[in-house]
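Dear Dr. V.,

Thank you for agreeing to look over these. As mentioned in my earlier message, I'm a first-year student in the group and I'm still getting used to reading structure tokens, so any feedback on how I've presented them would be very welcome. I ran two proteins. I've put each sequence directly above its structure. The first is here:
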Amino acid sequence: MNVPYGFFPDTWHWLAALVYVAVLASVVLRLPWKQLSNSNSEKLHVYLGTCVALMVLWTMKTTVVPGLDYHYLGATLLTLMFGWPLAIAGVSIVLAATIISGSSDWQTFPINVLLMGVLPVTTSYVIYRIVDSNLPNNFFIYVFLCAFFGASAALLSVIACATVLLIMTGSYGLAQIAHEYLPFAPLMLFPEGFVTGMLITVIVALRPKWVSTFDDDRYIKGR
């Protein structure tokens, strides 16, 4: 959902920039700096490698109508693997890279990072916290609810928010979006959830310590 420049008034971009600065300040205060230190180089390499992989995937997108395109988001994957602060930072890095490559407008960075980063990452993290606090410690519950359902819900939140914003600004009418974009939403949600669920399952099976929200003792060994 990479919104081009010109779809929103400049006032919205400035407001989004202020909100993003506030979020970024919270991220900096909460960042697990030890995970990024030289003493934990494996975690840092995995983190940077995941960001690079998402950079590549974000360049492979399908445009339905301008401003409402689709690519694998990966926000839930980042959230489950690295937690809320590093996931926000990771999406920011990925979006900055798309701007440098010319795939996105620099003026829209605040709105796009809130829409494609802060919103889905926060949605994913809230779902994880609800599942972790209220449901049994079960591997399948973790994968299906936190990964599969969480990724689909995160993308749905982006689609819904982008649709509302574009209608509010008059960029598109409700009838046009309902006819040209929303019918394809289910085709976007399932792959996002399936790919995220599959990747989390493989990573947890082979390298569980790479997933910071997964506890091997709680979900598998303690069963």
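The second protein is here, in the same arrangement:
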Amino acid sequence: MDLTARVEDYLEAILEIEMSGEIATVTRLAKSLGVTKATITAALKRLKADGLLEHERYGDVILTQSGRGKALTVYRRHEFLTDFFSRILGFSRERAQKVACVMEHEIDESTEMRLAAFTDAITLAERNKEAWLRELLEKLDSAHALPVPLCLLENGSNGVIARVTAQYELRRRLNAAGFIPGVEIFDIFRTDAAQGGTSFAFTMNGMEIKFGINEASAVWLYQP
């Protein structure tokens, strides 16, 4: 059974209350999730019908084995993502929690496992004080502005290629022509012709190059 993000939030909240040593009740859940008791009661009825918990009117809320397994999956992802964003990427704990709350419902097991493997590699590198990790963390601490598509830059702008987002044949052509991360582009100039459409001219590697809108939308630049 596929669960909605809200259902997963309910299961996770029940599990967290259990893990704190308390008993989950309608009142505690309403306070934890910031909703009314009536909303909680209606949700519990649906979750009980789905076999995810046990709850009698005015009684305690208890996860079934199936419900606890699903709740544990969500809780594990939340805690892992919070750690990843706070410890690895340097977010504040509060910000990491908010981002984790959004992402925990979107990633699948394969994505979680790959992120976990990456985190383990970072942890091992920290332990071994490897130079590449120090360089990576320095880059993260000095992160610059986000890249912008070439087609959105003002006339006269310069930039450094950050990425090429084209696919298939267009990507192959751009890569073959030297459009790769790190290459500088100078003096971008846009021309809007009534009949000929929009074109972009600029200088790269000492040569003047002209682009159509498709190419200019696929090349993203960091600006100085």
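From my reading of the second output: The chain has a mean pLDDT of 89. The beta strands are 53-55, 61-63, 148-149, 159-164, 184-193, 197-204, 207-212, 219-222. Does that match how you would interpret it?

Kind regards,
E.
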